[in-house]
């Protein structure tokens, strides 16, 4: 049995558990993203609604921090979704590499175990589709929110430059 066959044989029974653990991590990132989205939306609304103290350093820092949080959590969520099919295919390849094809009996067992080899691909596709639906349903506004946030940050930076220029002229 070659190196990859040994790896495949050792990993394949547990690979679906690895994909499930990955799905739990992705769900936790989705919850974190949901919380960040609500916080950012509230911060932007509060900043836009208040006319006094718009350029308070603490508020500006909070806006910059919340932008970094929502941007990184959304990027992580989207990346995790795209990895599921790859994990599924890797699980299938590892399982197929672990199949023993040395005798007729082993080949018969391999046919029986072929379904389990494909199960990781199925789980990868199922979780990718599920999280894509969650993304479409619950996070459709995140990119708009990020754009609003970037626009706000641009205004803050521009006003900061303008303020420093005003102070240097006085």
Automatic annotation (TrEMBL):
The keyword Protein transport applies. The keyword Nucleus does not apply. It comes from the Bacteria. It is found in: Cell membrane; Membrane. Keywords: Cell membrane, Membrane, Protein transport, Transmembrane, Transmembrane helix, Transport. Pfam families: MotA_ExbB. This is MotA/TolQ/ExbB proton channel domain-containing protein. It comes from Ruminococcus flavefaciens 007c. The lineage of its organism: Bacteria, Bacillati, Bacillota, Clostridia, Eubacteriales.
């Amino acid at each position: 049995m070659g190196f990859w066959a040994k790896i495949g044989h050792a990993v394949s029974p547990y690979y679906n558990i690895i994909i499930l653990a990955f799905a739990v991590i992705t769900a936790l990132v989705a919850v974190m993203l949901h919380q960040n989205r609500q916080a950012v939306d509230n911060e932007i609304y509060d900043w836009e609604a208040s006319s006094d103290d718009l350029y308070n350093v603490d508020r500006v820092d909070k806006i910059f921090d919340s932008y970094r949080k929502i941007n990184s959590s959304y990027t992580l969520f989207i990346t995790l979704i795209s990895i599921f099919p790859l994990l599924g295919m890797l699980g299938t390849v590892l399982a197929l590499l672990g199949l023993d094809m040395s005798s007729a009996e082993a080949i018969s067992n391999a046919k029986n175990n072929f379904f389990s080899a494909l199960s990781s691909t199925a789980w990868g596709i199922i979780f990718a589709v599920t999280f894509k639906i969650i993304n479409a349903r619950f996070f459709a506004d995140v990119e708009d929110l990020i754009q609003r946030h970037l626009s706000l940050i641009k205004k803050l930076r521009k006003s900061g430059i303008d303020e420093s220029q005003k102070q240097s002229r006085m």
